[in-house]
Amino acid sequence: MYIRQHNSKSKSIQLESDEKLRIAEERARLAEERIRQGEEKTRAAEERARVSEEQTRISTQKEREKADQEQARVAEEQTRIYAQKEREKADQEQARLAQERARVAAKQVPKQSQIPASLYSALQEMNIPEGDKGRVEGSTLICQNGGSDNECHTITMDPIINDGVARFEVVFNGHEGEEFSLGIVEASQVFKLNDLPNGMNGNCSARYSNIGELAHRVYCITKDSTPINGNSPFNCGQKISIEIDMTSNPRKCVFFVNGLEQKNSVVNIPKAIRFYVFVRKLNSSFQVTRFERLQSSSARGVPGSKQWEWGKNWKQKSQCSIQ
């Protein structure tokens, strides 16, 4: 009986111990569950914080980009406004300069010698030899000569003509009793003070003088090349023109007096030329009344026309059309 009581007591103690162990395990499990839940909450909090931080970063970046775009827009607008103001200032300055040039030109050029700007819009510059006392007023050159008729003025014109069709027109004034001329020269030719367009420069020029002669090469030194007659003489006050056609084959140079085409012309002219004008009488002048580009040549040929070839000797007695 003692043994049964002892076994019963032992069994009870074992059951109690097992229950305590179970309770302890349950408590440990619950503690681990609480820890797990706490870690889960911590992770959730960290994730919310991360998401919030990312949203803040994105929002900040968008705001920064928006601010940068606004700054760029403002800078672009300021640049546009500045450029517009500068253009307006430049336009105003150009208008002022144009008015000033017109005012000065009106004072310098007698009213009867004024010409529309469109007639000589291609004229860039008159090339005046160093030491030449000639005075340029607008499109007019007036001979000064230091008070004498001894100085010669051979004036070339810019731009150089090397393509297309161009027409050059001059009116001479106050040059009665002296020879004067106009023509073309090779673009590389440079005239010094008192150089004549013939003389040592004759090989590089074709010259139409007021007595109606057309000349080339150094005819004052050799008789192998002589002046050509047949073009009209011309006087002061008449409009004398040269038309260059670089598009024709051969290239050609035709002369006009008061719009009338002349018989004698020059062909196979150089690939690049300048127009020139020669005067020498004290206080005489010439005015460029036209220097323009044309769409096509106005030369049509006239009865008795003859063409004379650049670089060859010219003799009037020849009957060939190209000498």
Describe the structure.
With 323 residues, this protein is of the alpha+beta class. It folds into two domains: 87 residues; 192 residues, SPRY domain (Jelly Rolls, Sandwich). Helices cover 33% and strands 24% of the residues. It has one helix and 15 strands. Strands 2, 3, 5, 9, 10, 11, 12, 14 and 15 form a nine-stranded mixed sheet that branches. The protein has a six-stranded antiparallel sheet with strand order 1-4-13-6-7-8, with no helix packed on it. A hairpin with a 2-residue loop joins strand 2 and strand 3. The radius of gyration is 50 Å and the shape is rod-shaped. It starts with a helix and ends in a 14-residue tail after the last strand.
Give the tally of structural domains: 2
Estimated share of beta-strand residues? 15-25%
The second-level CATH architecture of the largest domain is: Sandwich
What proportion of the residues is helical, as a percent range?
25-40%
Class per helix and strand makeup: alpha+beta
Organism: Streblomastix strix
Protein name: SPRY domain-containing protein
Briefly summarize what is shown.
This is SPRY domain-containing protein. The chain has one helix spanning 2-108, and strands at 125-127, 135-137, 140-142, 153-158, 165-173, 181-186, 205-209, 214-216, 239-245, 252-257, 260-261, 264-267, 273-279, 285-294, 306-309.
Please specify the SSE layout and strand pairing.
Blueprint (H helix, E strand, L loop, with lengths): L1 H107 L16 E3 L7 E3 L2 E3 L10 E6 L6 E9 L7 E6 L18 E5 L4 E3 L22 E7 L6 E6 L2 E2 L2 E4 L5 E7 L5 E10 L11 E4 L14
Parallel strand pairs: 12-15
Antiparallel strand pairs: 1-4, 2-3, 3-14, 4-13, 5-9, 5-14, 6-7, 6-13, 7-8, 9-10, 10-11, 10-12
Organism: Streblomastix strix
Protein name: SPRY domain-containing protein
